[in-house]
Amino acid sequence: MRWGRDRRGRTAWSRGRVLAILAALTAWLIVFHPVVPDLPGRPGSLVEAFLPWLGLLVPVLVAAGLVRRSATALLAALLPVTAWAGTFGGLLLPAPDARHDLTVVQHNVSDENADPAGTARALAAARPDLIALQEVTPRALPAYRAALSARYPHHEVRGTVGLWSAHPLTDVRALDIRPRGVEPGWRRALRATASTRHGDVAVYVAHLPSVRLNARGFDAARRDESAGLLGSLLAAEPLDRVVLLGDLNGTVDDRGLAPLTSRLGTAGTGFAFSWPASAPLARIDHVLARRAEVLRIWTLPPTGSDHLPVAARLAY
User: Fold this and answer.
1) Which long-range contacts (CB under 8 A, 24 or more apart) does 138-146 make?
2) What are phi and psi of 308, to 5 degrees?
3) Which residue in 18, 49, 280, 306 has its CB near the most CB atoms, within 10 A?
4) Which residues, other chains included, contact 56 with Cβ-Cβ below 8 Å and sequence gap of 6+?
5) For residues 229 and 260, what is the distance between their CA atoms, to the nearest angstrom?
6) Are 248 and 257 in contact (CB under 8 A)?
7) Number of neighbouring beta carbons within 10 Å of residue 284
């Protein structure tokens, strides 16, 4: 491979300027994605939904730089590498070897799950203190109760969301996070107080509306409205310690979830991509906390759902 002048007289430093611009743009998107305007079609939220995957452009840019024999393009490829490492590199680090006070599991079990009992046993095998479920159907509920009742005698279900706990639950109530125009029977959130050995914890379980990618772009209006309603409830929560377990149908980078992520912290290590289960591309199932550190989040083996379960350890 020759790196001298080509037939047009260009050197390794003057070739590949377009590639260098693309590398700089990729780095800019990784770092400054919040300033991408949410025009009609919500391009900003769409980019943020798959933000870590922008790192896959780096080997493409490097390969193209080698083909073009461009030192400029190869040097510019360091920009997205640095941006990605600074933004997401910490998630690759091992979890701190520290004590934890609470282990939780979050799982959208799917309303089409053919083996709810097997799913319940798989979740209990992680030995969490709390198990939060979404898409619990009346038909599957007896199976979840039967499989979990021995280890988790305290449980509450409101609508299609449920919470199983090894600790007593009090002050349990359904939460109204319905977007406008949704029928009153839509119940997909609850709040409970778990009395743990470390004190009372307000536990929220939620399932935000789905988002859609269609000809008009990224449709997340109902999810964002529901997130805003849930955020207001969290802001008014009187207990200091709060844990939110839910299928939020968005990543922590998605600006539509800002009413939640601005009030609660997420995991310091672990990507834990949870959806779709067959080829996970994003973590849309979350464990967020206030006055607690989410030490680590990870996925559990597949169940009969189109989501992977996620587990997390928290320390107060």
Assistant:
1) 140/109, 140/111, 140/113, 140/116, 143/116, 143/117, 144/109, 144/116, 144/117, 144/119, 144/120, 146/117
2) -90, 145
3) 49
4) none
5) 10
6) yes
7) 26
Closest CA to 109 of 303, 310, 280: 303
Q: How confident is the model at residue 8 (pLDDT cuts 50, 70, 90)?
A: confident
For residue 236, give both structure tokens.
């008014």
Residues paired with residue 275 on neighbouring β-strands, in sequence order = 282
What pLDDT, on a 0 to 100 scale, did the predictor assign at position 202?
A: 98
Average pLDDT over residues 257-282: 94
Are 175 and 230 in contact, with CB atoms under 8 Å apart? yes
d(CA 52, CA 91): 11
d(CA 31, CA 154): 44
Reading the block at residue 60, the tokens are 């493409």
Predicted confidence (pLDDT) per residue in 158-200, tens digit:
999 999 999 999 999 999 999 999 998 899 999 999 999 989 9
Count of beta carbons in the 10 Å neighbourhood of residue 306: 17
Q: Six-digit token pair at 296?
A: 């680590």
Residue listed under structure tokens 């379980």:
205
DSSP string, the chain: ---S--TT---TTTS-HHHHHHHHHHHHHHHHGGGS---TT-HHHHHHHTGGGGGGHHHHHHHHHHHHT-HHHHHHTHHHHHHHHHHHGGGGSPPP----SEEEEEEE--TT-S-HHHHHHHHHTT--SEEEEES--TTTHHHHHHHHTTT--EEEEETTEEEEESS-EEEEEE---PPTT--TT---EEEEEEEETTEEEEEEEEEPPP-EEETTEEE-HHHHHHHHHHHHHHHT--SS-EEEEEE-SS-TT-GGGHHHHTTSB--SS-----BSTTS--B--EEEEEESSEEEEEEEPPP-SSSS--EEEEEE-
